[in-house]
Specification:
Strand content: 15-25%
Structural class: alpha+beta
Radius of gyration: 21 Å
Distance between the termini: 51 Å
Shape: globular
Number of strands: 14
CATH superfamily of the largest domain: Transferase(Phosphotransferase) domain 1
Order of helices and strands: EEEEHEEEEHHEEEEEHHHHHHHHHE
CATH architecture of the largest domain: Orthogonal Bundle
Strand order of the largest sheet: 1-2-3-4-8-5
Length: 411
């Protein structure tokens, strides 16, 4: 039946249609929910394909901004804009908006209904890690390397377009089927904002969205300096290093199969009744994330991987690796070398330029890479941080309420 009123009302078993009836979905088939919208599994009646239907909760100013921002950013990230380190860095790393509501051809509300139609993926990284933990089946070395490559390729593409996502986390990393390993893609492009290394960058509606357990330490320090209830009134400079931290946390969690900082956040919030202690611990440059014992444990998995993770998870953002450093790191050298060889033998117009190939051939400061294949044995190591953390349960981590603070937070 066609929708009357807002599509989020009514029975959960009712089949709902978008205006003009091309896409259908049920409220009972909800895939996820964010601040501004809910996502459902649906079907395109014209093609018969399953899709993801992202329905915004209203057509107010914030929802309209998110709606338009996701369309514009998606075109940039999935297009040919920005630098190309090599072919694989641009190959489907961001979810695509395949259709959207429009009024007389102009993107916007259609009969009071604001929505995106997205390509439908498989399990999120959060789902995959929870399943692997439950089954005591760690990711193989090849799977880890492929995931890490995707995470830092996402950060590289964002940086090349002077953008930051600020909410890179396992629930926003979704697997899409393809031959061989799954292709990981970053979703929730509503929150992408411009970066600014030398000036304050304020988003159009003044807000940024992030999840406490995945924010960079410099954002935590800015929040604390502003004081309770004052963060939205202070300036902030958003930098690509913030996305590197978030990607690094995801990369680490894939190794240890634990939602590390989420557990820490929940633990400290329950003990103190506020976010202050977690933010204080996260933002303290003198209290590093890794103890010497943690680093040694990571080295037993792979020494090059340990160096990469430590380099991306340095609380001092001026010493943190950038995205290009990550992609050229020895841990990821097997992939970058394979891409270089493929590009050099290809006559495709998509091949990298000579200068980009030169970048790939530059020597890394780290030692020679430890080769691995898809047949590598999974490795599970008991790794603890400086602060004691609650062991992850078999269930997915509970959703942590996103904070919304103004882009005016002083670094």
């Amino acid at each position: 039946m066609a929708m009357r009123g807002h599509p989020l009302g009514g029975s959960s078993t009712q089949q709902l249609e978008t205006p003009h009836g091309r896409f259908v979905f049920k409220r009972s088939a909800q895939l996820g929910e964010g601040c501004a919208a809910k996502v459902y599994e649906g079907r395109d009646l014209e093609s018969g394909q399953f899709v993801a239907v992202k329905v915004y909760k209203d057509i107010g100013r914030t929802s309209l901004h998110c709606f338009h921002n996701a369309i514009q950013v998606g075109k940039l990230l999935n297009g040919k804009s920005g630098k190309r380190l090599q072919d694989r860095t641009d190959r489907g790393l961001f979810v695509e908006v395949v259709a959207h509501s429009a009024n007389h051809g102009v993107p916007g509300p259609d009969l009071g209904f604001l929505f995106h139609i997205l390509e439908l993926g498989g399990p999120s990284l959060e789902d995959v890690l929870a399943t692997r933990y439950r089954d005591a089946s760690a990711l193989s070395m090849a799977e880890l390397r492929d995931l890490h490559w995707s995470l830092f390729s996402m950060a590289y593409k964002l940086e090349s377009l002077n953008l930051v996502h600020l909410d890179i986390k396992p629930s926003n990393i979704v697997s899409f089927p393809q031959s061989g390993n799954p292709q990981w893609k970053l979703v929730d492009l509503d929150c992408v904002v411009p970066a600014g290394a030398a000036r304050c960058v304020v988003t159009k509606f003044g807000d940024i969205t992030f999840t406490p357990a995945y924010i960079a330490p410099e954002l935590a320090r800015a929040y604390l300096r502003a004081g309770p209830g004052q963060a939205k009134h202070c300036p902030v400079i958003l930098t690509p290093a913030m996305d590197i931290w978030s990607a690094g946390i995801c990369a680490l969690e894939a190794v240890v199969l634990a939602s590390l900082l989420t557990d820490q956040y929940i633990k400290l919030q329950k003990e103190t009744g506020s976010d202050h202690e977690f933010l204080k611990w996260l933002g303290d440059v003198d209290e590093q994330l890794f103890s010497s014992g943690v680093i040694e444990s990571l080295r037993t998995v792979d020494a090059d991987m340990a160096r990469l993770l430590v380099g991306t998870l340095t609380k001092d953002n001026t010493r943190r690796l950038n995205a290009k450093d990550c992609l050229m790191h020895q841990w990821l050298r097997p992939i970058s070398e394979a891409m270089r060889q493929k590009a050099s033998s290809s006559r495709s117009l998509m091949a990298p330029t000579r200068s980009q190939l030169h970048m790939l051939e530059r020597k890394s400061d780290t030692t020679s890479c430890k080769q691995s294949t898809a047949t590598d044995e999974p490795v599970v190591k008991p790794i603890k941080l400086n602060k004691p953390l609650k062991q992850s349960t078999n269930e997915q981590s509970p959703d942590v309420a996103k904070w919304t603070s103004s882009t005016c937070e002083t670094m």
